[in-house]
Amino acid sequence: MKKKIAIIGSGFGGLSAACYLAKAGHAVTVYEKNEQLWGRASVKKADWFTRDMGPSWYLMPDLFENFFADFGKDVQDYLALTRLDPSYKIYFKDDTETPVIDVHTGVEKNRELFESLEPWSMDALKEYLEKAEVQYNIGMNEFVQKNYDSIFDFFNKRMMLDGLKMNIHTTIWKYVKKYFKSDKMQKIMQYPMLFLGSPPYETPALYNLMSYVDFGMGVWYPQWGMGSLVKALVDLWTELWVTYRTWAEVKTIHSTPEPKTRKRWKHKSKVTGLSLASGETIAFDEIVSNADMHRTETKLLESSDQTYNEAYRKKHTLAPSGFCVYLGLDKKVEWLEHHTLIFNEDREQNNQEIFKTATYPTDPSYYICCPSKTDPDVAPAWSENLFFLVPFPSRVTMNDEQKQIYRDKLLADAEKVLGQSLTDHIVHEEIFGPDEFSSRYHAYGGNALSGWAHTFSQTAIFRPNNVSKKVKGLYYAWWYTNPGIWVPICIISGKLASKRVAEHG
Ligand SMILES: Cc1cc2nc3c(=O)[nH]c(=O)nc-3n(C[C@H](O)[C@H](O)[C@H](O)COP(=O)(O)OP(=O)(O)OC[C@H]3O[C@@H](n4cnc5c(N)ncnc54)[C@H](O)[C@@H]3O)c2cc1C
After folding, report:
1. Phi, psi of 426 (to 5 degrees)
2. Fewest CB within 10 A of the end CB: N or C in the chain?
3. Does residue 417 register a pLDDT over 90?
4. 65-112: per-residue pLDDT in tens?
5. Residue 346 gets which letter from DSSP?
């Protein structure tokens, strides 16, 4: 039956849910609190520079192809994709022997490099990546594409067999150490975990599938950045008759009590509509929330309608926030690639500061994105468009002075690593930290990178369900739920939410 459905929030989860629900014939309207669609993938044009404010790595190209294929489309018709080569550059701070390396796609292209970092490591690397590929295929085909209602849906016979190959019983921290003895190889293999929002010593080794993504599939770039991907989804909306409103913050989800039933899903109430900050109230049959989970549960719903209360949130590990500095420079910067990672000396201390003590990282590892290295359309030829991202603890705040001090320290560090001046050449600058993640996206604790961290007890079935247990007709599509973080994975969360509407609606 055709329904009137609202989507709250226009991150990738919301964008994707809208596409699938409109394709199923529903009348879909998206409400976004900010001035533009796109959630954390906001795009900002400032002076001469066009910049992605959030995601910048186009990974798992197969999942994007699958998404467009679901609508009878070819991703190539929407995006001009190129594979970056090298995939990225790494600086090892304070290392004089091999301070900088370029990492490419494929084992053979990296042979000389990895043998120099750890003699005889090629056999280990090959085996590690073969296993990572098996895990990726099982993970993406078996586990990520499903909704789970009970522990038995997850721990079925197939899972027991395949799960053994997924290395769910050990952590990525221990697993990597089993294969590689050198500190550098360990850092290279463990780095994606930080961007997955998890401390490596609490992250199940199944996430080594990210190494297959990195070395097997490669790092891609859509011309004009990730904003072009969002534009592609919005073009699809037009074809599917999705309507949307920006500057339209949802303040309340309305519901009416449900009669008592013996059914498995014993909802207390049923969605009737929503109210906007402007005071306007609109009736809807169903709602999919892509707005932050904490916000949706505690601010948009009555307390009797909340599924995940404060006690639930206190017990869970929140992913990190980010300290971001966006720069436009009036010169070209040498010795940077499109993606550059700066690794610190002591990663254990860095993990402790981010995940345990919640203190500003003293000697952080960080990431520099420089899309103007490969895309002439994002900055003039005489300039450089840079984005620094430091994984930062959530639930901290920073006043202007603290931000400035941290920014000065970060840029001084980058100038030392790169051996050249940056600060004398800034023509445009913006700082975006935990407080900005809270205010712009309503992100709980200012988290930037994934909602709930991908620890074992917060993976798959253990992530929050995408169906409200209390309110009939309320569903969720975001990185808090299964499957989790990253743009292509949030796109799958939109598909899973649309399946729920079909099952429950
Ligand atoms: C700095 C950074 C770098 C990243 N890098 C990468 C990367 O390179 N590659 C990658 O794949 N992933 C990356 N990620 C992760 C990726 O961006 C996220 O996984 C994904 O964008 C999250 O999408 P989402 O749909 O869950 O929600 P979000 O993008 O958070 O969207 C939620 C939307 O809901 C809106 N909203 C909130 N409350 C309301 C309300 N009450 N009413 C209306 N609207 C509301 C918000 O304004 C927001 O637009 C990065 C994230 C960050 C922050």
Report:
1. -80, 125
2. N
3. yes
4. 999 999 999 999 999 999 999 999 999 997 887 789 999 998 888 888
5. -
Cα–Cα distance for residue pair 477/447, rounded to 1 Å: 17
Contacts of 266 (CB under 8 A, 6+ apart): 260
Point out the ligand 1 atom lying closest to the alpha carbon of residue 12.
25
Q: From the alpha carbon of 60, which atom of ligand 1 is closest?
A: 11
Does 198 sit in the ligand 1 pocket, CB within 6 Å?
no
One-letter identity of residue 32: E
Nearest CA to ligand 1 atom 50: 55
Distance between CA atoms of 255 and 302, rounded to whole angstroms? Answer: 9
CA dihedral 164, 170, 171, 173 (to 10 degrees): -110
Contact 94, 365 (CB under 8 A): no
3/505 Cα distance (integer angstroms): 9
Q: Which atom of ligand 1 lies nearest, measured to the CA of 299?
A: 41
Residue nearest to atom 14 of ligand 1 (CA): 55
**Residue 15 DSSP code:** H
Q: State in Å: Cα 347 to ligand 1 middle.
A: 26
Give the chain's end-to-end CA distance (angstroms, integer): 9
Looking at CATH, the fold of the domain delimited by 107-217 is given as Guanine Nucleotide Dissociation Inhibitor; domain 1 (1.10.405)
Please identify, by atom number, the ligand 1 atom nearest to the C-alpha of residue 13: 25
Burial 435-474 (b: 16+ CB within 10 A, else e): bbbbeebbbbbbbbbbbbbbbbebbbbebbbbbbbbbbbb
Average pLDDT, the chain: 91
How far apart, in whole angstroms, are the C-alpha atoms of residue 126 and residue 30? 46
d(CA 153, CA 144): 13
Residue to mutate (ligand 1; options 8, 40, 299; most atoms within 8 A of CB): 40
Instruction: Give the Cβ contact number of residue 119 at 10 Å.
Output: 10
Fold of 4-49+226-308+464-504: FAD/NAD(P)-binding domain (3.50.50)
Confirm or reject: Cβ of 479 under 6 Å from ligand 1.
yes
Residue whose entry in the numeric block shows the structure tokens 């003039």: 380
From the CB of 249, is ligand 1 less than 6 Å away? yes
Please state, in angstroms and rounded to a whole number, the distance separating the CA atoms of residues 165 and 326: 41
The rounded Å distance from CA 296 to ligand 1 centre is 15
Residue spans of the domains in the chain: they are 4-49+226-308+464-504, 107-217, 221-225+318-441
